Amino acid sequence: MTDRRRRPRARRGRRAARTLVGLLVLVGVLAGAVALVVTALERLEPEVPVVARCTATLDGTAWSLSADQAQHAALFAAVAQRRGLPARAVTIAIATALQESRLENIDYGDRDSIGLFQQRPSQGWGTVEQIMDPVYSVGKFYDGLVKVPGYEDMEVTDAAQAVQRSAFPKAYAQHEVRARAWASGLTGHSPATIACTLPAGDGGDPDAVLTRVRRDLGDVPARAFGGGDEPAGVVVDARGLGDDAARSAWAVAAWAVATADELGTRRVDVADRSWTREGGTWTANDRGARTAGTVRIDS
Q1: Residue 13 has pLDDT above 80, yes or no
Q2: Is residue 55 within 8 Å of 63, Cβ to Cβ?
Q3: Which residue, 194, 181, 182, 175, is CA-closest to 102?
Q4: Does this model's pTM top 0.85?
Q5: Do residues 196 and 257 touch, judged by C-beta distance below 8 A?
């Protein structure tokens, strides 16, 4: 004989099981929906753009400049190297331009002051067109600096004021430490000091690099390589820039990194180190050490 009193309890058990299964299915569906929403939001969230920034790291401190400021500082060092001027001249030039124009080639200023050093046409510095040419402008600054007796041993602010005749003669001092770090790296006295973090680019033009080498560094031996399906770039022989081939090479390498944003440079190789646009720092050269005094610049 069947025990009818057990049937309701069995039905309740089956309903509870079905309810539990339903809840588990619902939880699974909800979890999947949440995962889809999270994935969609992640895809919708824009990537944070890389801000072009360059640093000179010395004695544990990183001194930053924008990529545009860095390329001007690199020009100051290159022109000084070409003229046989000491690193102290570069420090003074960078500190002066940081104070006068934020190291930017601006076409405005107090009265008729313009350019990197806020030089005034009315004071005999040259025409507006000349002063807005960075090579001319830094050349005129160095022309004035080398006429200051003993500038190498003077305080930076005093040497700068002797050239500039500023209404704020002590203002240059605040930029001295930053300027010294950059000058040390850009003149090769502190290897692997200058590095830039840059957005990904489409690459550069070796001819543009050669033109810039001639403009900044003068008649230094340099040649283009590659092209087509092969990597392209420029090799610079820095041995003629000074008595110390290794230091001269590091000066050119620092120049190449500091101008990388402007020229689209992808990689710089010097000695046994390399800088890449993707990495943004100096690492061991996976191509092997380069010939002493030479620098490879990949476009």
Answers
A1: no
A2: yes
A3: 175
A4: no
A5: yes
